Amino acid sequence: MDSKKIRAALGKLQAEPESEQAWNDLAEAASARGGDLSTEEFERLLMAARERHAARGEWDAVARLLATAVDAVVDTPAEVPLLREQARTLQVELFDDEAAGIPYLRLLELDPNDSVASTAVEEI
């Protein structure tokens, strides 16, 4: 991942969270292999961006950043806490139980004994 492209896209999103071009730039930069940005640094940048968007109540942006973060850490230990945060954001902040079902189902794939995910899926 290229740190300049990631930082530029995140900066644009801070100013214009609805910018589809910035979202596309972020997705493209996040999916690129190689570059000077480690996965850990990428996660840290996305967390900082999520915190700023959440402080302003921009929950759609938070949810999209979480989706980007989850895609970047699939099949790593970081995936589970991000899935939990993603599901909570979708369900509690955006009132979208149906969309929250997707990360909850993935949590159940990873841990069939996850009681929170199991209860949430049953209620959806």
Description:
This protein has 124 residues and is mainly alpha-helical. It has two domains: 1-57, no CATH class; 73-124, no CATH class. The protein contains seven helices and no strands. Helix 1 (3-15) packs parallel to helix 3 (39-55). The radius of gyration is 15 Å and the shape is globular.
Name a few traits of the molecule:
single chain; 124 residues; mainly alpha
Number of helical elements: 7
- Which class best fits the helix and strand makeup? mainly alpha
Number of domains: 2
Strand content: under 5%
Q: Give the termini distance in whole angstroms.
A: 36 Å
Low-confidence stretches: none
Helical content stands at over 70%
Q: Please provide the count of β strands.
A: 0
The radius of gyration computed from the alpha-carbon positions, rounded to a whole number of angstroms, is 15 Å
Compressed to H and E, one letter per element, the order equals HHHHHHH
Q: What is the overall pLDDT average?
A: 94
Largest sheet: none
> What is the global morphology?
globular
Compose a concise summary of this entry:
With 124 residues, this protein is mostly helical.
Layout of SSEs?
Layout: H1 3-15, H2 20-31, H3 39-55, H4 59-72, H5 79-93, H6 97-110, H7 115-123
Helix pairs in contact: 1-2, 1-3, 3-4, 4-5, 5-6, 6-7
